[in-house]
Automatic annotation (TrEMBL):
Acetyl-coenzyme A synthetase N-terminal domain segment(s): 25-80
HAMAP family assigned: Ac_CoA_synth
Cofactor(s) needed by this chain: Mg(2+)
Full protein name: Acetyl-coenzyme A synthetase
Residues binding ATP: G390, E391, P392, D414, T415, F416, W417, Q418, T419, D504, R520, R531
Positions that bind Mg(2+): V542, V548
Domain (AMP-dependent synthetase/ligase): residue spans on this chain: 83-473
Gene Ontology, cellular component aspect: cytosol
GO biological process, one term: acetyl-CoA biosynthetic process from acetate
General function of this protein: Catalyzes the conversion of acetate into acetyl-CoA (AcCoA), an essential intermediate at the junction of anabolic and catabolic pathways. AcsA undergoes a two-step reaction. In the first half reaction, AcsA combines acetate with ATP to form acetyl-adenylate (AcAMP) intermediate. In the second half reaction, it can then transfer the acetyl group from AcAMP to the sulfhydryl group of CoA, forming the product AcCoA.
A GO molecular-function annotation: metal ion binding
Ranges for domain AMP-binding enzyme C-terminal: 536-618
Length: 653
């Protein structure tokens, strides 16, 4: 990898960015190395307003349950809202909301504060207290963001569940979190269609399966017909009527859990990743400033959903903590056509745009098919910075994004991070880092990522290995809700010398030391930037007990979605072929959608009389991965009990 391939930050970028040039980056890294705790303490004082200042920085006495800024007290909603109003930003637009149909609503900081305070008063009026868990199952809306902020305001711990998850997934999360309330909408509008939310909540809560749950608060979005459980269900607008627009923030300890967010691991059910208040807010704000270079007159747009961590850190918290103006978008990138993103950038003069490689790849395809939705047809001159997140971005997509969206002038920050890390871990800083397409470049200052072997020893650059973080950092996961042992086992396995195990493989370039993520090293798939465990999908398939005897799920590369889900299924009846196979494949996909959500539907379903197993009965997953890819099987199949089935499994439905 030579320097000439790199895109260097322009002189203008190096002069005006918050982190000015590589020397400034290196100075920050040096500061963090010289005095790790002093560095984070300095930033925590600069970025967070504390009601009670902290005197302790990092408490490692109960590692790996680390505590940051332990004796400090703060309120996250105060930091995102009141503080900006007090600074004179009351009339500044906080959120530009664009609805699915294109209608625009602008909300100022004063208005968002009033709305949040009223909503917080609603929660209090229903008896929600500090420490209670509230599940938010909402579409993209100002109300969704305000609901998160309202929880933060009273010290309730929110758990946002993506609106595409099924009733069963929602029930699992409400139960595991022990939630007292669900905040939802009657329906959500996406791509011109009204999709149910409240009826899924009803199904999730039916038969009294969630005994901790007391109230369901419903935001009226469409006015569509919904069911109603007297006493349990309440209209948001009715509860809001007459509530005061003032609500004193609840000052919480820095370690107080701001939220749980369920995500997939390699085994078992999704785990509730628990985040703190102080350390989390610090990193959300800090990375928004340094990675995105957010300035007062920027219009920032992160296209993620609030149901994912990206929507937490870079919609609900980071940009608001800095007093920024951001877009909240209800719809989908392809409605009314695949020019929607470009049209919105033009219309709102978006200057910073953050999206996922899967969206870029599908919009490339669309632009190549129809000139009318090519970014060249829109005025994108307001853009100054682009970002990517969720999965590796392939160099071809990077180059297209750079040239056709960024006009060749906008740096691209390829940000590597995870639900568990709270914010960016490895990323370019736009005024400092020379960019190489396909590499997330260098660690964020203060983040000690490294590549090691199975015993925790450093591997030399140029040689791949396991991605770890050597030292605890402020926005790290605190524990898995209800399962501290699983937290330790998943992230701090004893053989890794106390380093945090990210679950990804990575390699550093021999010359530049730049990181490239090579993909998950566990049984987690990344489909369109969404994380899913192969085991979860397998359990969903075998729960279709009338049909399925056995199932194995692997990922295979896909041009648009990054990875695609491929399921190998043995039925309880003879192996189907032709039309019958197609009908059963559809039945199985629908079943998975019902168990987990449409995002977990397998793209390929392959039927066999059996699965390839060793003589000791272990499913040969490596071999299945080759079959899924359509590769010739080069692995040793001598231990394979029934080699003939390989041919059957070649046919996908
Ligand atoms: C992957 C999303 C390569 C990675 C913020 C990680 C990436 C998982 C990148 C976390 C990137 C995320 N380059 N891979 N820039 N960003 N990943 O928890 O495998 O939904 O472990 O968090 O996505 O997904 P999660």
């Amino acid at each position: 990898m030579s320097e000439t391939q790199a895109y260097l930050p322009s002189a203008a970028w190096q002069e005006q960015a918050h982190v000015k040039g590589m020397a400034a980056y290196q100075a920050l890294v040096a500061e963090s190395e010289a005095d790790y705790q002093g560095y984070w303490a300095r930033l925590a004082r600069e970025f967070v307003t504390w009601q009670t200042p902290f005197t302790q920085v990092l408490n490692e006495s109960n590692a790996p349950f680390f505590k940051w800024f332990e004796d400090g007290r703060l309120n996250v909603s105060y930091n995102c809202l009141d503080r900006n109003v007090e600074r004179g930003l009351g009339d500044k637009v906080a959120i530009i909301f664009e609805a699915d149909d294109g209608a625009v609503t602008k909300v100022t900081y004063s208005e968002l504060l009033a709305k949040t305070a009223q909503l917080a008063n609603v929660l209090k009026s229903r008896g929600v207290k500090k420490g209670d868990r509230v599940v938010i199952y909402m579409s993209m809306s100002v109300e969704g963001v305000a609901a998160m902020q309202a929880c933060a305001r009273i010290g309730a711990t929110h758990s946002v569940v993506f609106g595409g998850f099924s009733a069963q997934s929602l029930r699992d999360r409400v139960q595991d979190a022990g939630a007292v309330m669900v905040i939802t909408a009657d329906e959500q509008l996406r791509g011109g269609k009204a999709l149910p939310l409240k009826s899924i909540v009803d199904e999730a809560l039916a038969d009294g399966s969630c005994p901790t749950l007391k109230d369901v608060i419903v935001y009226q979005r469409t006015g569509g017909k919904i069911g109603w459980v007297e006493g349990r269900d309440h209209w948001l607008h009715e509860l809001l009527a007459g509530q005061s627009t003032v609500c004193e923030p609840e000052w919480v300890e820095a370690e107080h859990p701001l939220f749980l967010l369920y995500t997939s691991g390699s085994t078992g059910k999704p785990k509730g990743v628990q985040h703190s208040s102080g350390g989390y807010l610090l990193h959300a704000a800090l990375t928004t400033k340094w990675t995105f270079d957010l300035k007062d007159n920027d219009v920032f747009w992160c296209t993620a959903d609030i149901g994912w961590v990206t929507g937490h850190s870079y919609i609900a918290y980071g940009p608001l903590a800095l007093g920024g103006t951001e877009i909240v978008f209800e719809g989908v990138p392809t409605y009314p056509d695949a020019g929607r993103f470009w049209k919105m950038i033009e219309k709102h003069k978006v200057s910073i745009f953050y999206t996922a490689p899967t969206a870029i790849r599908s919009l490339i395809k669309a632009a190549e098919t129809s000139e009318a939705v090519h970014p060249a047809r829109y005025d994108l001159s307001s853009l100054r910075l682009l970002g990517s997140v969720g999965e590796p971005i392939n160099p071809a997509a990077w180059e297209w994004y750079h040239k056709h969206v960024g006009g060749g002038r906008c740096p691209i920050v390829d940000t590597f991070w995870q639900t568990e890390t709270g914010g960016h871990m490895i990323t370019p800083l736009p005024g400092a880092t020379p960019l190489i397409p396909g590499s997330c470049t260098l660690p964020f200052p203060g983040i000690t990522t490294a590549i090691v072997d199975e015993t925790g020893n450093d591997v030399p650059n140029g040689q791949g290995g396991i991605l770890v973080v050597k030292k605890p950092w402020p926005s790290m996961i605190r524990t898995i809700w209800n399962d501290p042992d699983r937290f330790k086992k998943s992230y701090y396995p004893s053989e890794l010398k106390g380093y945090y195990l990210a679950g990804d493989g990575a390699i550093r370039d021999a010359d530049t030391g730049y990181f490239t993520i090579t993909g998950r090293i566990d049984d987690v798939l990344n489909v369109s930037g969404h994380r899913m465990g192969t085991m979860e999908i397998e359990s969903a398939l075998v729960s279709c007990t009338e049909l399925v005897a056995e199932a194995a799920v692997v990922g295979r590369p896909d041009d648009t979605t990054g990875e695609a889900i491929c399921a190998f299924v043995v039925l309880k009846r003879p192996r189907p072929t032709g039309d019958e196979a197609k009908v059963i494949a559809k039945q199985l996909r629908d079943h998975v959608a019902k168990e987990i959500g449409p995002i977990a539907k397998p793209k390929d379903i392959r039927f066999g009389d059996n699965l390839p197993k060793t003589r000791s009965g272990k499913i040969m997953r490596r071999l299945l991965r080759s079959v899924a890819k359509g590769e010739a099987v080069t692995q040793d199949t001598s231990t394979l009990e029934n080699p003939a089935i390989l041919e059957q499994l070649g046919q996908a439905y």
